[in-house]
Predict the structure of DUF3492 domain-containing protein.
Amino acid sequence: MKICLIAEGCYPYVAGGVSSWIQMLVKGMPQHEFTIFTIGAEEKLRGQFKYEIPNNIAQIDEHFLDEFMNAKEKKATDIRITKRQKETFVQFLLGERIDWGVIFDMFRSDGNLSVNQFLISKDFLSIVEAICETKYAQTPFNDVFWTIRSMLLPILSIIKTKPPKADIYHCVSTGYAGIVGAKFKHDTGKPLIVTEHGIYTREREEEILKADWVDNYFKTTWIDFFTSISYGAYVAGDVITALFSNAKFLQIELGAPQEKCIVIPNGINTERFSNIEPLSEVKKEFVIGAVVRVVPIKDIKTMIYSFSIVKNEIKNAKLYIIGPYNENPDYYEECVELIESLECEGIEFVGRVNISEWLGKVDITLLTSVSEGQPFVILESLAARRPVVATDVGSCREMIEGTYDDYGESGIITPVMNPDMIAKAIIKLAKDRKLMIRMGEQGYQRTVRYYKEEVFLDEYENIYRRLHK
């Protein structure tokens, strides 16, 4: 069977949870041939793979949004679109749910309509005028025009791409990847699976509300844009998977048909961690490991503030931040400066390492993210019998406290962006190694019961076979 995985902003360029998920899926299904259709932000990433590519990946089809933004414009031509096509674009840009088939048919991969020509046409100008009259009467027309143009150029360009040949298309997020998956299904008639690790729309909303690159009066437009393209993926999907129940309910709230939605948790190969020594009741140092990418969504600054409080009480505490720190160099430098300003000793940025080797060196793991899906690091920690302190995001509470079992707590859940509460949880474990050991064991039992890699692989194999006709 030929399966095309559609990935945005992750595999194989960025080490992280979604990329690890893709690598595990592909390696766990050597009987299938995979194509990876990648959507990256910048063309400079081309060929810069962070993963060893499995033998059953036949092709990596690379696409970058900045290539479309930098494309040369052609001279305006006399383009004419239908009334329905114009109305669909206006509805889309006003945040209404639309029939994406109208736009897909306009920008077929073998069609004659150029994206750049459309965006300098009189018809596009009339669409912008309609938006201004309805929503932006008091906003400079020039600002509206260029905002909408910059919004549409990459997405229309990417959906005009020719689909790779496949029996099944499987996008691993909504957003750009999801709408590309919907377009490929529209063009080929092949089935589509939509998998979300976090809720893409919610994550983009959080980013946009905080962003300084978007003027306040355009923030709702950008949020509506991402909501609409995610809805397009939900409607097109034959099967829509979430990692945990609350995420499934959010998908349905955002327009996913309930009958298509199922939950398939992440799985893990616990044997990778079988050689790690259990925690001992006596140890000279108290070591915290944070297996994260150093990016704002992981809220490393709150982690640093929390550890500075811990350090005042637990003098032998150390914090190893384990994961790549070159993804967002500016944020990394801000974190280093914060450590220096707090005069906080005992923090080290380790970089990307072999997690199964490093987890044996730590007593607990720490996660301070403001948004998550179902973090692999929690499963990895529990597989190594290390308890976790994590913020109450995604399925962290479900994984640590349990929903369907009575194994007991395997760590402590804290509020988001609350250094005092996070530090309190860490200190509680640091002062009670018996509690730490018990929580680690309880987490291990839950992980081997509910989060097995083979169960995860079987679930997707069954879906692939059911959809492949």
Observations:
- The mean pLDDT is 94.
